[in-house]
Amino acid sequence: MELSDVDTDNQPLLGFQSNHFDNDNSINNPDTNTSISDVDVSENDSSKTSDAEEFSFRGLDRRKKMVFLIIGMVNFCACTCFSLLAPFFPAEATKKGVSTTVVGLIFSCFEFWIFVTSPIFGYFLTRIGAKFTFISGIMVCGSCSVLFGILDKCPPNEVFIAMCFACRTVEALGCSAFVTASFAIIAHEFPNNVATVFGSLETFTGIGMMVGPPIGGALYELGGYGLPFWTMGTILITCGFVSFIYMPGQDEGAKTFKGSVLRLLKSPLVVVCCFTVFCSSFALGFLDPTLANHLEVFNLSSLYVGLIFLCAPGIYGFTAPLWGYLGDAKDWTAGMMIIGLFFSGIAYLLLGPAPFLPFLPFTLWLTIVTLCCFGLFFGCSLIPTFTGILTGAKQLGLDESLDTFGMVSGLFNSSFSLGAFVGPSIGGLLQDHFGFGWAASSCGFLYLATTLVVILFRFTSKQGFNKPPPTG
C-alpha cells in the first residue's frame, strides 16, 4: 500500500504520535472483519472533501496555527526586506558609477540564483532537514541585508559592483532555501488544503511586497542608505530566532529517495503547470522595467506611479486566499488555470493597448483597471499550479512524503524565479525595439498560447488533472 493511500489526518504529523487506532473500537473489534487499510482509504476520501470545505484558521490545532503564523510572518518580513531597495538603490548605485544596465543585472541575478538552486535544495531537503533549511535560509537573508547596508562605504565602480553581486547572490541562496522549505512544510502539514493555505500565505507575501518600497523610502529619508537594510535585516534575523524556538520539528521519516526533479518532468501535467508558473511570473516581472516609462505621458508624481505599481500585486495578495479555497473545495485546478490565463492575456492586450486594436484609448483609467484585472486573474492562474504539480507527482507514483514535497516545491520555486528573471530582461528589450504596445501584446500572446496548451492537455490527456485513485 502506498503512503498516498493512507489518511494523512490519522498519521503522526511531523513527529507527533497519534492514538487514533488505540481508541477506535470498531477497528480493534474482530467481529467487524474490517481492515485498517480499508478504513483509512474510505476516511481519506471523505476527509479530503470535508477538510477543504470546512478549513478555517480557528479550527486548526495549536501546532498547525504555529506553522501558519511563522511562515506568514517570515513571508511578510522577507518580502519587505527584498523590495525595500527599489526607491533609492538605483540612484545610490549611479553615484558609484554603475550603469542602469548593471543595476538591472544586480536586481535580476537574485531571481537567477533562486532558479538554479531551488531544485537542489528541494532534492536534498530531507537530508539537510526541513526546519534547519528554513531557519538557516532566513538567517542568511537577514545577515546579507545587514551587510548590504554598508556597501555605500565601498570604493566605486568595480569593487562596489562585485560586492553587490556577491551579497545578492548569497542572499538569493538563503531565499531559495527558506522558500523551498516553507512550501514543502505547507504541503506536509496541510496535505488536503495545500491551495487554500498557499493562497492565504500569499497575502502576507503580497502585503510585504507592497509596503517594502514605501518603508524603504521612509527609512532612507530618515537615516540614509544603511538604515533600511539594518532595520529590516535585524527584524528578519529576529524572525529566524523566533522560528528556531517555536517552529515544530519535522518527522522526515526514512530518507529514501525514489525520485528526482528530472523524474517529475516526465509528467506532462508537471510540465504544463511549470510552464504556466513561468508565464505568470514572466508577465509580472515584465512590468518592473517598462511600466514607469509607459506612464510618463501622464506626468504623474513618483508617489502616484508607485501606487499604480501596487495595483496588480495588491489585488493578487488579497484575492489569493479565495482562489486557494476554490482550488481545494471545488477541485477546479484546470478550469481556474484556463480562466486565469485567458483573462490575464486579454488584460495585457488592453494594457498597451495593442497596436492592432486602434479603437482602444490610451487613458490612465484603462491602465489602472487593466492592472487590477491582471492582479485578480494572476492568482487564478498561479495558485492552482502547486496542486497541479503535486497531482503530477502522484500520477508518477511518488509517495506523499516530505521528500516528494521538497522536490515539488523546489521545482515550483525554480519555475517562478526563471520567469521573474527572464521577464524584466526580455520586457525591457522588447520595449526598446518595438514600443510598450507590442511588448505588452507579446505577454498577452504568451498567456493566450499557454491557455491553448492547457486546454489541449485537459481534453487530450488520459490522466489530465485527475488525481490517481487510491490503491490498497
UniProtKB/TrEMBL annotation:
<keyword id="KW-1133">Transmembrane helix</keyword>
<dbReference type="Pfam" id="PF07690">
    <property type="entry name" value="MFS_1"/>
</dbReference>
<feature type="transmembrane region" description="Helical">
    <location>
        <begin position="436"/>
        <end position="457"/>
    </location>
</feature>
<protein>
    <recommendedName>
        <fullName>Major facilitator superfamily (MFS) profile domain-containing protein</fullName>
    </recommendedName>
</protein>
<feature type="transmembrane region" description="Helical">
    <location>
        <begin position="66"/>
        <end position="89"/>
    </location>
</feature>
<dbReference type="InterPro" id="IPR036259">
    <property type="entry name" value="MFS_trans_sf"/>
</dbReference>
<feature type="transmembrane region" description="Helical">
    <location>
        <begin position="227"/>
        <end position="247"/>
    </location>
</feature>
<feature type="transmembrane region" description="Helical">
    <location>
        <begin position="303"/>
        <end position="325"/>
    </location>
</feature>
<dbReference type="InterPro" id="IPR020846">
    <property type="entry name" value="MFS_dom"/>
</dbReference>
<feature type="domain" description="Major facilitator superfamily (MFS) profile">
    <location>
        <begin position="269"/>
        <end position="472"/>
    </location>
</feature>
<keyword id="KW-0813">Transport</keyword>
<feature type="transmembrane region" description="Helical">
    <location>
        <begin position="268"/>
        <end position="287"/>
    </location>
</feature>
<feature type="transmembrane region" description="Helical">
    <location>
        <begin position="332"/>
        <end position="351"/>
    </location>
</feature>
<dbReference type="InterPro" id="IPR001807">
    <property type="entry name" value="ClC"/>
</dbReference>
<dbReference type="InterPro" id="IPR011701">
    <property type="entry name" value="MFS"/>
</dbReference>
<feature type="transmembrane region" description="Helical">
    <location>
        <begin position="363"/>
        <end position="390"/>
    </location>
</feature>
<dbReference type="InterPro" id="IPR050930">
    <property type="entry name" value="MFS_Vesicular_Transporter"/>
</dbReference>
<feature type="compositionally biased region" description="Polar residues">
    <location>
        <begin position="20"/>
        <end position="37"/>
    </location>
</feature>
<keyword id="KW-0812">Transmembrane</keyword>
<dbReference type="GO" id="GO:0015108">
    <property type="term" value="F:chloride transmembrane transporter activity"/>
</dbReference>
<keyword id="KW-0472">Membrane</keyword>
<feature type="region of interest" description="Disordered">
    <location>
        <begin position="20"/>
        <end position="47"/>
    </location>
</feature>
<feature type="transmembrane region" description="Helical">
    <location>
        <begin position="411"/>
        <end position="430"/>
    </location>
</feature>
<feature type="transmembrane region" description="Helical">
    <location>
        <begin position="101"/>
        <end position="125"/>
    </location>
</feature>
<dbReference type="GO" id="GO:0016020">
    <property type="term" value="C:membrane"/>
</dbReference>
<feature type="transmembrane region" description="Helical">
    <location>
        <begin position="132"/>
        <end position="151"/>
    </location>
</feature>
